[in-house]
Amino acid sequence: MKILLIDDSSLARRLLRKILEKENHEIIEAGSGMEGLEKYYLEKPDVVFLDLTMEGLYGLDVLEKIKEIDPSAKVIVASADIQKQTKNLALEKGAFAFINKPFNEEEILDVLRKV
Questions:
Q1: CA–CA separation, 6 vs 78, rounded Å?
Q2: DSSP states of 18-83 as a string?
Q3: pTM value surpassing 0.70
Q4: Which residues pair with 56 in a beta bridge?
Q5: CB neighbours of residue 28 within 10 Å
Q6: 8 Å CB contact between 50 and 36
Q7: pLDDT for 81
Q8: Beta bridge partners of 100
Q9: Minimal CA–CA distance to 113: which of 18, 21, 1?
């Protein structure tokens, strides 16, 4: 599976990459929302892991734009924001799932199996 990681934290991207590469997924990384949109358009990944809090373009805005490009896009929001309202908003905007940081390997792989 080709997976795009959009997160301004290189540590978060590295941790996710380590988990996902164990399962032999192809990983593409973007360090900002704008870069993420560009890579989504060019690479057509099967799944996107998307952070919410990033400089420039906020994650929910990135989610909306990805859904405009591809309404069937599978976007998993991965955020440290634990507010239920934020989770509900992400799901209303079309996120496939919402997982919290710090990452739990089993949770990530479980969500990915459901995609």
A1: 9
A2: HHHHTTT-EEEEESSHHHHHHHHHHH--SEEEE-S--SSS-HHHHHHHHHHH-TT--EEEEES---
A3: yes
A4: none
A5: 17
A6: yes
A7: 85
A8: 79
A9: 1
Structure tokens at 97: 């799932």
Q: Which tokens sit at 25? A: 């997924």
Task: Write the CB contacts of 60 (distance below 8 Å, at least 6 apart in sequence).
Answer: 52, 89, 90, 93
Alpha-carbon distances of 44 from 15, 49, 55, 104, rounded to whole Å: 22, 13, 23, 26
DSSP H or E run through 12: helix 10-21
Q: What is the pLDDT of residues 36-91, one digit of tens each?
A: 999 999 999 999 999 999 888 999 999 999 999 999 999 999 999 889 999 999 99
Structure tokens at 105: 């390997």
Tokens of 6: 């959009």
